[in-house]
Amino acid sequence: MHPFTYTRVDDVEAASAAVTTDAVSRAVQGPDDTVFIAGGTTQLDLMRDGVWSPGTLVDVSRLPLADVELDEDTLVVGAAVTMADLARHEAVADLDVLRDSLLLAASPQLRSMATVGGNVLQRTRCRYFRDPEVTQCNKRRPGSGCAAIEGTARTHAVLGVDAGCIAVHASDLAVALVTLDARVRLHGPDGGRTIPVADLHVRADVDPARDNVLAAGELVTHLEIPVPDARTGYLKVRDRASYEFALTSAAVVARVEDGILAHVAVGLGGVGSVPWRATRAEEVLRGQRASLALFEQAAAAELADAFTVPGTDFKPELARRTLVRQLRDVTEVTA
Amino acid sequence: MSRHSLHVTVNGEAHAVEVDTRRSLLDLLREDLALTGTQKGCDQGACGACTVHVDGRRVLSCLTLAAQAEGREVTTVEGIGTADELHPVQQAFLDCDAFQCGACTAGQVMSAVALLEEDDWSTRDDVRELMSGNLCRCGAYPRIVDAVLSVRATQEA
Amino acid sequence: MTTTTNAPAGTATPVLGAGVTRVDGPLKVTGAVPYADDLAPRDALVGVLVGSTIAAGQISLVDASDALAAPGVVAVISHHDAPSVVRPNEASADERAPRPPFQDATVRFHGDHVAMVVAQTREEAVHAATLLHVSYDVSEPVVDLNDPRATREDDDPAGADSTRGDLERGLAEADVVVAADYVTGDNTNNPIGLFAACAEWDGESLHMWATTQWPSNTADCLAEAWGVPREDVRVECPYLGGGFGSGLRPWPYIHAAAIAAKVVGRPVRVVLSRPQMFTDVGHRPETVQHVRLGARRDGTLTAVEHTATIPVAVDDDNPENVVSGTRQGYAVEHLRADVDQVRLHISPPGSMRAPGEAQGNFALETALDELAVELDIDPVRLRLHNDATTNPDQDDLPWSSKALDQCLRRGAELIGWDDRDPAPRSMRDGDQLIGYGVAAVSFFYFQQPCTVRVVVRRDGTAAVHCAAMDIGTGTYTVVTQVAAERLGLGLGDVEVVLGDSSLPPSPPAGGSGLATAISNAVALAVTAVLDDLDLSGAPGRDALSRAVGARDEVAAEATAEPPDPAEMGMSPSGAFGAKFARVRVDADLGLVRVERLVSVIDCGQVLNERTARSQVIGGAVGGIGHALLEHTVTDLHAGPQTGRITNAHMADYLIAVNADVPDLEVEFVGGPDRLNPVGVKGVGEVGLCGVAAAIGNAVFHATGRRVRRLPITPDLLL
Ligand SMILES: Cc1cc2nc3c(=O)[nH]c(=O)nc-3n(C[C@H](O)[C@H](O)[C@H](O)COP(=O)(O)OP(=O)(O)OC[C@H]3O[C@@H](n4cnc5c(N)ncnc54)[C@H](O)[C@@H]3O)c2cc1C
Ligand code: SF4
Ligand code: FES
Ligand code: FES
After folding, report:
1. C467-494, pLDDT tens digit by residue?
2. Beta-strand (E) ranges in C186-298?
3. Which ligand 1 atom is the nearest neighbour of the CA of A121?
4. How far apart (Å, rounded) are the C-alpha atoms in residues C525 and C454?
5. Could you point out which of A49, B36, B120, C420 has its C-alpha 20 to 30 Å from the C-alpha of A71?
6. Which domains does chain B possess?
7. Going from the N-terminus, what domains does chain C have, and what CATH number goes with each?
8. How far is A167 from chain C (nearest CA, A)?
C-alpha cells in the first residue's frame, strides 16, 4: 500500500471541497487522487490488493448522513447508514426485496461496517482487475485486453458487456435499488442533483475504465427509495450457502390484479456489468396474465442477447431459471 | 503527513498513539498494543478471524484503518474474560469443544458475543447464517452453534 | 533410554476415553495462545516475499534500487546476493525437501520466490515490494495436466503401483463391467492461521519460531541446509493455527527468514499473505483417474483397475498415493493400481487432509455406486459383500482390527437407509430433489518412531516432553490423559510440553499417525520411569513423590517403534469408516445442500471422545467443501497469466461456512486395535474421506445425474 494522508470531515460541504478529481468514478486511483472512504470495505480492500493508491483519503463515515426516514411513500436513507442498520430498520421490514438484498450480502461484520453509499459504489470482484501484476485488463489499463475472456470467468457478467470487459457489478443492494426505481442524491462543489440509481453506473461495453458518473467532489448523500404497492422478493443463487457474492440473483416487484400483472419490475444480479434492470423481461410481462409460461418467455427475452465466454456459458440458463423462480414465488402463480 | 495521531480506548484502557496511516486496526492491536489474541487470516475481509467490537458492534479489524477508530471503544477477546474468569461464551466454547487449532476462535467468540446481543434471530439455522462471517477451517461449526445456543438458553433461563 | 517395540496383542488397556475438555482450551478461547509469530522477538525486522509473475524462465535482473530507497527498507535479498544453503532431504524419506529460495535464477512456477524485502514495518516492506523491478527471460510453461509436452514420470515414488492376479482374467470372469473417468480439482489447505517464521542467529546457532507440523524435521533440514550441528538449531512452535498437511515440509519461507536474518544480522519475521498461502505451502493436486470394475451378478468383485494421473512440481517430489484405499479396500483377486506423475510448472503440491486417499476414494466409491446401479444391488450390500476381512494388499494377513461392516450397518440404520426409495430421482419435496448416498473408507496405517521423556518431580507431579505438534487435534490433551492415567495422577498434575525441536524427536503431526506413536511412547516412558523408581501400576502422587525422595526429579525416555507386521502375524490397520449423506438438490437451480451427514468410524481405542468427535466433524466439514465448493483454479490459456492461480483469495476459494453445515452425526464403533498396547488408530483423516463420494452418490440418487468431477457445482447440474 502506498503512503497516503488521512483526514476526516464533519460536514458535507467540506467533503465535496476536499475531493478535486473525479477518481471516485474511475476504475483506478493514483497518488494524485483524493477519494472518499466510508466503511472502507471496498476502498481498503482494493488498496491492499495494490490496485488503488490514492494520495489522500477523506473519511465520510461520520457525516450526519446516518438517518433513515419515511417521507410519504419514499424511504430516504443517509449514505452513511450501514447495511446492517438499514436491514434492521422497521421501515424495510415488509420490503423484502430491499431487506433480503442486504441480509444475503457479505457477512454480519461487513454489514455493520459497510455503508449503503459505499455499497452501490463498490467495484468489480474480477480477480484480474484486482491483481496489479496481471497485465491484460482494459479496466485498469485501457487497450491492454481482457484476461478474463479466455481465463477464469465463472463470476463474470453476460449482459452489458463485450469482449473488451466482462466485469460484473457485484452489489446485491444496487440490484434491488434499480428494481425499485430508487434515486441517489448527490452533493457536489456546484450544488446538488438527484439521479436514478439506474443512471449511476457505467456499462463495461460503454467504458470499462469508468465505473460511475460521479463528477469531481460529488458525494452521495442519500438514497431515495420509493416503497411500491406490490409484493417483492430477492433470490440469490450461489455455491456457498452464505458469505458469497451472487452467481445469479433476481429482484422482483409485482402486483397481480385478477391474474394480470398490473405492476412489475425486475432486476438481475451477478450477470450485468451494472446492476441490471430487466426491461425486456418487463415488456413481456407488463399487463399480461401471470403464468409460468409467460415467465419463461420473459426470462428468455432478457437473456436472448447475452454475451458469453466459455467460463460464463452456464450463466444465461441459470439466470433464466433464477428469474422464473422468483417471479413465481413473488406472484404465487402455480401454473 | 502519512502518519496519524489518534485516541482509542481498547478493552477499557485509553491509548494515544501515532501510527502510519496505512496501519489497520488489526495491526495496531497486534503490533503496537501487543494484543495478539486477535488473528489475521486474510487481511481482506474474507474470513472473520480479526473480528473485534467497535462501539459494541462486531467489525473486521483488518479492513478498518487504525485512524478510523479515533474516539471509539474497541473490545478484543482479551477484554472479555481471562483463563480464570471466562466469559460465558468462552466457557461455552470450551465446554462444547467449539474449536481445534484456535486460529478462528477469537473471531468466533467476539462474533458470538455480539450475536447474543442482537435480537433478530431465534433458530439454529439463524445462528448458522449469522455466524457465517467467521470461517473455521478446522470445521467446528456445529459445535460453535451448540455453544451459542447454550449461552442463549442460560440467558433465557 | 529404552527402545522398545509396541507390546503385542492382548495387552491393551482402556485409556480414559471419556471427554475431558482440552487442556489448552482456556488459552485458545481467551486469545492467549502463542502461535509462532506471537513469540517472535518484538524488535524483529519484517520480511516480505516477492513472487515471480511468470511461470517458467530465468530471472535476468532484480533491480532493487527504488525499493532500497523507500522508507524503512533495510535490505533486498535475491539470488544475486543471497548466501548459499544446501537443499536438504526430508528426514522421513529419501525425498528432497523443498528448494531453499534465492539459490538460482530459475523460475519454476508462477509466484516462485524471486526476492525478499526486509524493512522496519510490514507496511513499509509491502510497499517497497511493489517498487522492485524484476526482469525475466520467459520460457513457455507447461501447466496443464493434459498437455502432451509434459514429462510423465513412470517411476513410482509413493510405492503406489500394484498388480494382483490377472486383471484381464478378472474382467473376463465378470458379468458386468463398469468403467469411467473421474476428475478431482486442485484444492488448497488454507488453514486460517497464516504461516509465519522468525529467525534469530547467535553466531552459528539458529533459533526459529516457525509454523510447522513437524519441528524435528524442520530443525534437521535447517541444520543440513546451513551445515551446522543439529544441536545448534532450535525450532519452536508450541501452537499453529491449523495445518491440514501444509505444515509438514520445511517450505521456502522458513529458509527465507533464516537467510534474511543472516544477511541483516538481526531477527527477521516473515508472515505469508493469504495469496502466498496458495503457492508457498503446498496444495492437494488435481487428479484424472480411471476406474474399471468387474463383478459377477451376485455382486462379487472379480476385477478392479484404478489408475491416476497427478501433477508434481518441476524439481520436487510428492509421494501422493491415490490408490492406497483401492488396494486394500475390498477383497478382489485381480487388481491393477497405477499412479503416474506429470511434471508441471506449478507450485509444489504437498499433503492436504488425507493426501491421495481423499481423491482416490472419490473415484473408487463413485464407481462402486455405478456398479451397484448396474447390478441393481443395494450399494451398502455391495460393499458388505466385498468387505476384505484380511488385507488383500499384505499377503492376506488378518487385520489388527477392522469394523467396517459395523460402520456400514450402523450408518445405514442411523440415516434410515432402508426407508428411502432407491430409484433415482424418486424423492421430492417441492422444488427440492432428495437423495441418499454412501461411501466406505479404508484408511492406510502409518506409524513412525516417536520418543518421549517423562519427568517425575520431587512433589510427585510429572512433565512430558516431546517435539511433536498439537495441530488442534488434541495432542496436548490426550498425552496428558495417557500420562496421568498411567502415573495415577490428576490431569492438573501433568504438564505437557510440545512443539520444540530441542525436545525428544517425534514424527510429523500428519498421516493420522501421531496419536498412535506418541501415546504408545508415553506409555513406554512411564513404564521406564516407574521402573527407575521401583514402582508399578499407577502409583499416584504421594508414592511418586516418596520414590523421587531427595532428588529434584527422575526422568526417563522411551521410543515407540512401529511394529513389524510379519513378525506379529497381522496387518496393521488404519481407521475405517462409512459415510452416509442425505442431500437436497434444487431441481431447477442445481444447488446442492447437505441435509444430513452420518460418519461411523472405527479408529480403535478412542483416547478422548470429545476431541476425536471434533476431528471427525472437522473432517466432514472439509469433505463438504471438497465435494461441493473447493477448487483452486490455475490459468491454463497461453499468455502472460499462464500458470497464475486465479482465485488465491478467501472470498474466491470457497471453503464451507457455518450455513453449509448441518448437524453432523458421528459414532464410533469397534474396539482397541490389537497392534499396540494403547489400542489406538489415527482418526485425523478418515473423517474427510468418503464424504465427497457419499455426497456425489446422493446427488445421483436425487437427480439421476452422475457427476464424475469435483467440486459438484450448480452449473454441472443445470
Ligand atoms: C469479503 C466480502 C464479501 C462481500 N460480499 C458482498 C455481497 O455478497 N453483496 C454485496 O452487495 N456486497 C458485498 N461486499 C461488498 C461490500 O458490501 C462493499 O464493500 C461495501 O458495501 C462498501 O461500502 P463501504 O462503506 O465499506 O464503502 P467504501 O469501501 O468506504 O467505499 C467504496 C467506494 O465508494 C466511495 N464512496 C463511499 N462513500 C461514498 C459517498 N457517500 N459518496 C461518494 N463516494 C463514496 C469510496 O470512495 C469508494 O470508492 C463484500 C465485500 C467483501 C470484502
Ligand atoms: S473483465 Fe474487465 S476488469 Fe476483468 S480483466 Fe477483463 S477488462 Fe479487466
Ligand atoms: S483477517 Fe480480517 S476478515 Fe480475514
Ligand atoms: S478452530 Fe481452527 S480454524 Fe477454527
Report:
1. 999 999 899 999 999 999 999 999 999 9
2. 196-202, 205-210, 233-236, 268-271, 287-295
3. 34
4. 6
5. B120
6. 3-79 (3.10.20.30), 88-156 (1.10.150.120)
7. 25-33+448-561 (3.30.365.10), 39-140+190-277 (3.90.1170.50), 391-447+572-718 (3.30.365.10)
8. 14
